[in-house]
Amino acid sequence: MQEADLSRELSERVAEAARRGTPLRLVGGGTKAWYGRPVAAEPLALAGHRGVVDYQPSELVVRLRGGTRLVELEALLAAEGQWLACDPPRFGAETTVAGALAAGLAGPGRPYLGGLRDAVLGVTLINGRGEVVRLGGAVMKNVAGFDGFRPMVGALGSLGVILEVCLKVAPRPASRRALALALPREALAERAEAWWRAGLPLAGAAHDGERLRLCLAGSESAVDEAVATLGGDEEDPAYWSALRDQRLPFFRDPGAPLWRLLLPPGACPALPGEGLVEWGGRQWWWRGEAPAEAVFAEAARLGGQASRWRGGDPRAPVFAPLAPPLLALQRRLKAAFDPEGLFNPGIHYPEL
Amino acid sequence: MTATPQAEARMTAQFLQALAACLPAEGLVLDEAGRRAYECDALTLFRRLPGVVAIPEEIAQVQAILRLCDDYGVPVVARGAGTGLSGGALPHAEGVLLNLSRLDATLEIDPDRRLARVGAGVRNLAISQAAAPHGLYFAPDPSSQVASTLGGNIAENAGGVHCLKYGLTVNNVVAATLITIDGERLTLGSPLGEAPGLDLLALIHGSEGLLGVVVEAWVELLPLPRDKRVLLAGFAEVTDCAEAVAAIIAAGVVPAGLELMDRAAVVAVEAMVQQGWPCDLGALLICELDGSAAEVTAQSERVTALLKTHGADHLESATDPAEQARIWSVRKAAFPAIARLAPDTLVMDGSVPRRRLAAVLTRIIALAEAYGLRVFNTFHAGDGNIHPVILFDSRLEGELERAESLGQAILRLCVEEGGSITGEHGVGAEKVDAMCDQFSAAELRQFEAIKAAFDPRGLLNPGKLIPTLNRCAELGHLHVKDGRFPHPELPRF
Ligand SMILES: Cc1cc2nc3c(=O)[nH]c(=O)nc-3n(C[C@H](O)[C@H](O)[C@H](O)COP(=O)(O)OP(=O)(O)OC[C@H]3O[C@@H](n4cnc5c(N)ncnc54)[C@H](O)[C@@H]3O)c2cc1C
After folding, report:
1. Are B196 and A348 in contact (CB < 8 Å)?
2. In this complex, is the C-beta atom of B228 within 8 Å of any C-beta atom belonging to chain A?
3. On the CB side of A245, how many CA atoms lie within 13 Å of its CA?
4. CATH number at residue B313
5. Cα dihedral sign for A8, A13, A19, A24?
6. Residue A128 to residues A33, A73, A131, A340, B197: CA-CA distances in angstroms?
């Protein structure tokens, strides 16, 4: 694995940018450059700051530099029979750990295996004053000071440069098998929930409009037993990595914008276009031509929320609007980390 | 800590009158006897009479009170059940003690979505009790769960015996309603599990009432485990027992709970609730496994083998609930049993990497000898969260100070071993100084900036959690000038 510690250079770059008041666009692997609102600022390349700082398999903890490639981390963990249970997507081999953390996305097992927010134990950050601050730590339980590291998950780099990340890892399931069942989409939410409550080792439950698809991961005996109980057709578990990384034909289709909707399980959006639903009915991918306001309104009607994932008018909003006092507080929190507004300005909202 | 005269002037008659108008008649406590009930939390060493106590019953009342305090510049200390162990709810002499325990009317279970909407004053256990008819429960289970409130659990990011497998409070709460100091009502997070923008919900967990007042939350519920087994293992040496803990984690088994008691604690418990253990037992380990019947059996075989390799010479395995309850009663009896042995006890709380547990316990024993005090250990070993209990007699000249400096030394040890000065009890008033050992000036300034983003005038729980940089400099000074350090004769580790 390639190693390089660029923390000195990066802190100097940030301090310099702070002096000059030049905003920065943080660039990791560049595999999610289209996510969020466009940022017009000087790029700061972070992928070179990489390598594992400390990995203690017996402790189930790994500490690594932000630029480490997710695929490299996966290989390192796999060699010890471990993995990152939240299994974040990699939209290319260049996807970095810090980029994954900043995007806050999780793989198909999210409802059953947790998200990055549950796995992160600490983050070392360059804040907007050019200071290196270590928030959280490397231990399982730590309530000293504010948990300033958790908001890094999903902040899209707007709070600072993630230099180092400390993550909780998990034993890798010994067996992983995939099934396709001839059941309608309406059955997904209820069935998946019932199977999970009955103790089936679910690691994914989706419906592509044709068939209900399940990923099972756990001990060999538990997975075999589940496969025997459920019936259906066994398929290549590679389906699930392809879904995670959006390599399925559904995602390749150019044209209409792609939306990500989080909905109460069982809800189905009444919008033009077509959808693929996963997370046991909680996360929808929806491709269709509808004005942003209509999509936000439909998600809200169903008690959910929408974000524009890819495509569409780059000037249109990406995330559903926030209540003004909440937006104001988020701005003040951003300023607490980044008083000059250096990092990825406007990536969530124009005002943030 | 004495209040500035300026602060004193803020709680004027006019303010008190306006405060009374925000509350139901019995909601305002002015008389000294009434206020006395709030002078401390479960850390009884720290006491202070609150200026006034307010007991709202509705969210709108909390909003009005905070708005008023903001207008008059009066400090506010939130309080749930007051079971905190670090003085987090220690009142402000010239401020409002905001008792939130009456915000307990809301407790709605959505069994299909496995969610509950819960008022901040609802007791932790009440959530699981309400969920039980649906085969569900709320996973975070601090030992104080009969009494402690959800608001207090969020403010301390409470853990419990089962957080090793099921996470802390922060991992089980999906949304919260926060009232900011200017009385604004905000929804943080979402029952969908994610919300747009910055994750403020995560940030208010463990924020000890410094960022806002939590009045309500949505929590996730889990299906009750289908099968459960409790193992009990006795070891001749505590270090072997600690090594067994590291080995179980390393083997990839995630027990639902993994608790350790050292020899002193075992002897104390045995004296109270005779179990008939061999009295030369050096340490006890309790391991709870849950899941499907097949999983539990497989894990239990794995763990039993590991325990034996690490020298366990006494093994029990409980499959029926009554037997399991008997084993757990031993752990639950530990603190009371220890407390019987001395006029005073100080319960410490630190966190270390699990592979360092054996070394840490050895160092604590050496420290205790050096300070001439007895220390008992009974703690959440599986996540490296230690709870050394220091025994002392405050009637003896200097013993309290000695116990406190031993406590500080143990916390420094945790930091040196790569851990934290608090795993679950919080910083509160007690560990403000120890924060200087764990964080740099830039990090403390970062905490101050976060605080100021929510509460620019510092009215919410002032003086807790974050030390001033001056205070740290002063303590650093103390370090250098050995002559002024209490008990310079004692070795420092
Ligand atoms: C016997 C015993 C066993 C314990 N076991 C455990 C354990 O296993 N695990 C564990 O983590 N802790 C444990 N504790 C500590 C304590 O019970 C927890 O910290 C608990 O979460 C405190 O809840 P509370 O309602 O009593 O809060 P309080 O003690 O009243 O308050 C704690 C802090 O939270 C703030 N606060 C309270 N309510 C709110 C609110 N609604 N909004 C904003 N801030 C608020 C207060 O200002 C204070 O800083 C134990 C305590 C005792 C006495």
Report:
1. yes
2. no
3. 14
4. 3.30.70.2190
5. negative
6. 21, 28, 7, 7, 18
Domain range enclosing B245:
225-341
How far is it, in rounded angstroms, from Cα A215 to Cα A237?
7
CATH number at residue A199: 3.30.70
Please report the atom of ligand 1 found closest to the CA of residue B153.
21
Query: Can you tell me the mean pLDDT for B382-409?
Result: 94
Q: Which atom of ligand 1 is nearest to the CA of B78?
A: 47
Banded model confidence at residue B8, pLDDT cuts 50, 70, 90 = low
- Give the model confidence (pLDDT) of B187-222 as tens digits: 999 999 999 999 999 999 999 999 999 999 999 999
- Ligand 1 neighbours, Cβ below 6 Å, are B 41-42, 77-85, 88-89, 100, 120, 142-144, 148-149, 151-153, 155-156, 158-160, 208-209, 213-214, 424-425, 461
- B421 to chain A, closest Cα gap in Å: 7
Calculate how close chain A gets to B248, using CA atoms only, in Å.
9
Tell whether B55 and B76 lie within a shared domain: yes
The boundaries of the domain holding residue A223 are: 175-244
Residues A185 and A49 in one domain: no
**Tens-digit pLDDT profile for residues A187-204:** 999 999 999 999 999 999
- Alpha carbon distances (Å) from B58 to A260, B121, B204, B406: 37, 11, 21, 44
Question: Are A91 and A118 part of one and the same domain?
Answer: yes
Pocket test for ligand 1, best of B39, B144, B211 (most atoms within 8 A of CB): B144
Assess if residue B116 is contained within a domain: yes
Beta bridge partner(s), residue B175: B189, B218
Inside any domain, residue B321: yes
pLDDT of res. B479: 29
Verify that B330 and B230 share a domain, yes or no. yes
Asked if A101 and A183 sit in the same domain, the reply is no
Candidate from B196, B203, B438 with C-beta closest to A319: B196
The ipTM is 0.97
Same domain as B219, residue B234:
no
Residue type, A227: V
pTM: 0.95
pLDDT for the residue B279: 65
Number of domains in chain B: 3
In this complex, is the C-beta atom of A282 within 8 Å of any C-beta atom belonging to chain B?
Answer: yes
Residue A348 belongs to some domain of the structure: no
Interhelix angle for B399-416 vs B357-371, to 10°? 160
Examine the pLDDT at A263 and tell me if it is beyond 80.
Answer: yes
